[in-house]
Amino acid sequence: MKLHQSTPSWSFLHVIFLLVNLPSSCAIIEKDDLPPEIQKCYSNYAHVSLRDVVGQTLSWFCEAPAVRTLRNSDSPAPQPLSSVRYVSGLVDKVIANRGRRVKRQAAIHSRDKCVRREYRMLSDYERNAYHRAIIALKHDTSVEPNKYDALAALHTGLATRIAHFGPNFLGWHRVYLLMYEVALQEVDPSICLPYWDSSLDNELDDPRQSPIFSPGFIGGGTVAGNGGVVSDGPFAGWETPNDGPLIRNIGGDGELFTLESIEAILSRERTRDIVPPLSLPANDLEFHHGGVHVYIGGIMNQLDTAAYDPVFYLHHAFVDYIWELFRTRQRALRIDPQLDYPEEFGSPFHAPNETMGFNLNLTTEQGYSDDLTTSYEYDPSPDCSERRPTCGSRYLRCNTTRGRCYPVIPSTVTPEPPTGMPGCRPGQPGCPTWPPTRPPTRPPICPPGQPGCPAGPPTRPPTCLPGQPWCPTSPPPMSTPKPTPPKQPCKQEVLPTQNNFCIDGMCDTNGWVYVPVKVVSMRPPGLKKYDSYPISNGKVSKTNDIYQPSAYAETNRYINGIRGVPKTYDRCDDTKGFGQVYVQSNGLSYSGIYKEAAVTDLRLATSLSIAYVAVKDPRNGPVKALFRAFDSCGRICRTACKDPVTGRYNTCSGVLNIKDVAGKPKQYSKTYGEATLDTWDYAENEDCPSFQSEDNFLTFYCDYRDNIPWSGVKSSHSKRDPKAVVPMNPGHPVPQPSLPLTLRECKVSNDCILDVPCLTGKTQCRSYGETHKCRGSCNKYAVCNYGQFWVRSCPFDWSYHKHEHTCTSLNRCKKLTLPRPLVPNQTRPTWNVSPKQSSYFQHLGQRAINHGGPFVHFFG
Description:
Blueprint: H1 2-20, H2 23-26, E1 29-32, H3 36-44, H4 55-70, H5 81-97, E2 114-116, H6 124-139, H7 147-152, H8 159-162, H9 168-187, H10 198-201, E3 227-229, E4 247-249, H11 259-266, H12 285-296, H13 311-332, E5 355-357, E6 360-363, E7 376-378, E8 396-399, E9 404-407, E10 502-503, E11 506-507, E12 512-522, E13 535-536, E14 539-540, H14 553-559, E15 578-587, E16 593-601, E17 606-616, E18 623-631, E19 638-642, E20 649-651, E21 655-658, H15 672-679, E22 680-681, E23 690-691, E24 698-702, E25 746-749, E26 752-754, E27 771-773, E28 780-785, E29 788-793, E30 799-801, E31 806-808, H16 835-851, H17 855-859
Parallel strand pairs: 2-7, 12-24
Antiparallel strand pairs: 1-21, 3-4, 5-6, 8-9, 10-11, 12-17, 13-14, 15-16, 15-18, 18-21, 19-20, 19-24, 22-23, 25-26, 27-28, 28-29, 30-31
């Protein structure tokens, strides 16, 4: 009886003990649920294996568009009246140009369209002029704060929801690029927006070695460095309105476009297959575009700030180029891309009858209209082959094995002959005369029979640039290309990350506190051996190294027995002895991102490291933030939170609430130095400090699972067919297979049919630079580019020789007279050209041929 009476008293004390230790009464950091917007996106991709896509890109894809909504900051800051008027004026010009072709006089334009070329195909003069136009917009304060930032502000607030994660992504950014191009042309009418084909840089083992990141191009990164605050190049020292200096963290994580990803996109037939919500990530254009944002890092890593970095427009011009390639293929399949706006559009912002924004009445569906492309066209991305082993740029070389162009190291580029000051335009005071007086590089083409011409057929000019279709197929002796990109020594280095320390537009390190997190990393399956071997009876056994989990049955059971190797970046190499895990916090109750890296020992079966992640100081009010971690190969790390009662770590969402509670042990520190002292107890024993593990609330587990940790679906770790297509949402149709393959011909466009079969129903060709003559045409031919044929025309009235695969002046095509409307009873004007003028015009024509690029379209 006494025992029975004493039992309640003990139970009562036990209940009191539990109440005292409840999370709500003593924990400064508490876990929270994943916001519904992000959870819904992860649920849509629950059955997507990370063996097929890069996990970090998928995480950015789901979280980046939703974070702005979660902060309740859809409405952008009020814009000055001058900014509103300026943007409205650009909108008016885009609308005025829609549906009509604008006659331009600048040399780099085609007869009636602005020609957008790959960034490296511009001459140094043209590229510097482009940079100067951007800088002029930045310095023009007639609009508040300046014209460049006024344009960039359009890609903030609610616009990020209208323009992303849906089919309006394509049309919205197309209109945005047109506005930017018009703004540049107000500074310099000769400017056409170039695009940056980042898949060419991905041909290098280390894309950071590309001249793209050198001071002559976008700058902001030393060779094989990753930048930080941009201090070199045309945009050095730039400041953003609310997010501090222009920052890039190049190549720490993220991924540039790959050849495979572009071909996967172009293999589809309907727009619904390349944009959310029905697309698979492997075929999704918006998905792959996100990897480039992460690769550049810094300002580009956030949707609200990305447009403040000029590289944003170069990147999105390439996205628009890929979309135009896709639309070209649709037309060949008798699909009108203007009418192919997906019926399943996801967010109401992407409904076909919703307005696009920009203070104009264009609907999202009208963003697919061909009227928007009548003022510009794209030059194909540089390509090459064994037959044409040059790429047409001093900054590119040809890998004849892959038939791909790759960038050269900046120090190996031969300087272009000086033509005056950088970006100096002809006619400006202090600029040299243009064109510079130089002896002609080759004689004019002399038609047979003309007085003074040699007998016999004319020969091709000796200085014809290799790679141009009317030039000889063999390269000149002095320019033998290297067969493969040079292998750069891989430096075992830890890349730093520069943060802007901005919170809600105020950039100050003092506004942050540091939260210690543990990073538990498993040995990657790619690290087979570490060349450290056991010795038995005086003999070395090289079957397994001493760190290899498979050498120990119990360890192998947990490490390699259930793990897969999800897809990673192409450049990833986790066979070294150490790696990096990038940890970051993304504010949900405030605007701000902080990113840091932990170094892990990849030799060990399981390694432990500590990272300090900063968040907004909670002493000014409770803070909510989303914590994520990815290894240096882009694989997702799982999140686990500490149970304050049991002390065990259990799976959690990575969303943490942090508050300041007086008198309780702090789980964060005001500075990095304090965080170190709080993690390691030097006060107790200065010589041998102890690790204070009880203050680590969050742990990341990097263990190569093949599914999204927060999708609600556990990894099966089972092998599956990588070609199997899984619908994104139950009830949605699985993408249909391609049209039956035509065996005798390949239709490229309505005016170009080839007398060779397409490779497959999805991929027209494989060999880059492969050319074929269009059936029934004298001067049209098709060139293989990204698995699809691209129609080109020979210059002047030259014909295409289908056996030599070149344009030739021997058999000339009949001249086509462009129709020109005539006033009644009016005859066409005749031009009286003097011999001197004729010689000058011929000289200009030869210079155009030497220059290549868009002049093919200008004269073709």
